[in-house]
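Handout, section B. The chain below has 67 residues.
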Amino acid sequence: MKASELRDMTPDQLSDELVKLKKEQFNLRFQAASGQLENTFRVRQVRKDIARVQTVQRARALEAGKE
């Protein structure tokens, strides 16, 4: 997911996306622990996507604070 796509989302959509990504991260951790995880790179992708969503949310919060 690209940061530009995230910037176009509403705050509610960002929150929903964050919840979805955290659930996926949880499931990937369980798959890794049980030895069922095939695509190990997906763990890194999800972690970075979570960081991107949180960065966009924080930037918007800072913008709102300045106004």
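Note. The radius of gyration is 14 Å. Compare this with the example in section A.
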